[in-house]
Write a structure and sequence with these properties.
Glucose Permease (Domain IIA), globular, alpha+beta
Length: about 450
């Protein structure tokens, strides 16, 4: 207590002994303080201010060290190399100045490298090579829409499949038949794949060998695929009309609620019948079904229990319907042959094949290639001999189709969905038919 009083007394004494200059400065300070009090806002104005907590801690912002600053690296460029005739993968790597070790590591650690074993002239390989001359990444253009990218990782190369989505444009083509469907379609600018698919779609109701007539006409609406302005090829047929001998057939692509795709008539009847009318495309009939035919080799009257289709050697032969291969072999008379059993009642036979594509016991689908036209066995030239048996009895393949059970239909509960899905195509077909003065009704 004594020490505190003595200290205060000493401070007071010190102040009392200030020189006059200090007293003048103090007086000036008091006057300035009084003026500032007069100018301060009142209590109402003070209340409107936002209070700032006195205990708020402000974190100072430190400057970013130079070593942590964002660095934008220049992207490595790709080196493109086109596969030449006779090229091997090792030769291409050498041309890219990459080591055999890089190639070995790629082939032993990456997935889907089988595609690299089947590279063809014209394909393109692209490489990213680092400053040390090592392979960082490689890309193989598999086709116009897909690529395989191999990128170096921690333990080897990782594989990524890259698929680009093409632009889909709708196209319509039409033609009048003067000699054949194939020639008319070609003159209309229709691709071969669309011609074949058109024949496939109508193959259950028309025999394009036997039924086609001069002045028949067709309209086909289909997709064309483009990528970056480049035409890639044809897509799906969306709708088609074929007018044959006073009767029109229409087909519409329909996707049901389970994702299954098929072609149906306006009435909802499947265009895909149980059997094709002809097991090959665009040929001519050289010999019809005839129980009293004169055999061309033996020159004797022998029943011809099938239909002969003259065609170039190597023309694909299709399974007329779904089934299982009953027999597949060779005999002196039949040459290379295939017999297919379809359910319990039907068998189809294909004789004089150049080669067989199936073996006994295999399951086959309608329009699956089972062999190729030839002239093996008792044959005077390349052709297919085709037979159709029902319950063990030979029937005329050209007429029996119309006597078989009807094809499947769109169910009643699915008809509203079907009609809604095809309505736009129906209108387009009718509009195009009217513009070209084609008949669209049978």
């Amino acid at each position: 207590m004594f020490n505190r009083s003595a200290r205060r007394h000493a401070e007071y004494k010190s102040k009392a002994q200030f020189p006059r200059r200090h007293l003048a400065i103090a007086a000036s300070t008091l006057i300035a303080l009084g003026v500032s009090l007069v100018l301060l806002p009142g209590e109402d104005a003070q209340a409107k201010r936002t209070a700032i907590p006195l205990d708020l801690e402000l974190t100072p912002i430190s400057p970013i060290p130079e070593e942590d600053a964002l660095v934008v690296e220049a992207q490595q460029e790709w080196l493109d190399i086109e596969v030449r005739s006779g090229d091997s993968l090792s030769a291409i790597f050498a041309r890219a100045k990459l080591s055999p070790q890089d190639l070995h590591e790629l082939l032993t650690t990456a997935k889907k490298t089988k595609a690299l074993n089947t590279i063809k002239p014209g394909q393109k390989l692209s490489f990213q090579i680092n400053d040390n001359g090592k392979l960082d990444a490689m890309s193989l253009r598999v086709d116009k829409l897909s690529s395989l990218v191999f990128e170096r990782g921690v333990t080897g190369f990782n594989t990524t499949e890259v698929t680009e989505t093409p632009e889909i444009r709708q196209r319509v083509a039409s033609a009048t038949i003067t000699s054949s469907l194939y020639k008319a379609a070609q003159e209309a600018g229709v691709s071969q794949s669309i011609i074949m698919e058109l024949a496939n779609i109508f193959g259950g109701v028309l025999d394009f060998v036997y039924d086609v007539r001069k002045n028949d006409h067709f309209i086909v609406i289909y997709e064309e695929l483009y990528l970056n302005g480049e035409h890639l090829g044809s897509g799906q047929i969306l709708a088609a009309l074929y007018h044959n001998q006073g009767q029109s057939f229409q087909a519409y692509r329909y996707i049901n609620d389970e994702g299954d795709v098929d072609y149906f008539s306006e009435a909802g009847e499947s265009m895909r019948k149980a059997f094709l009318r002809a097991p090959l495309d665009f040929t001519r009939i050289s010999s019809k079904f005839d129980p009293k035919r004169l055999h061309p080799v033996f020159k004797t009257v022998r029943p011809h229990r099938g239909v002969d289709y003259a065609a170039a050697r190597g023309t694909p032969v299709y399974a007329a319907g779904d089934g299982r291969v009953l027999e597949a072999g060779y005999s002196k008379a039949n040459g290379n042959y295939v017999f297919i059993k379809h359910g319990e009642a039907y068998v189809t036979k294909y004789l004089h094949l150049h080669k067989r594509a199936v073996s006994k016991g295999e399951r086959v689908k309608q329009r699956e290639t089972i062999g190729w036209v030839g002239s093996t066995g008792y044959a005077t030239g390349p052709h297919l001999h085709y037979e159709f048996l029902m319950n063990g009895v030979h029937r005329n393949p050209a007429t029996i189709i119309d006597k078989l059970p009807p094809p499947k239909r769109v169910s009643g509960k699915d008809m509203p969905r079907f009609q809604q899905q095809i309505s736009g195509m129906q209108l387009q077909l009718r509009t195009y038919a009217a513009q070209r003065n084609y008949s669209s009704e049978g």
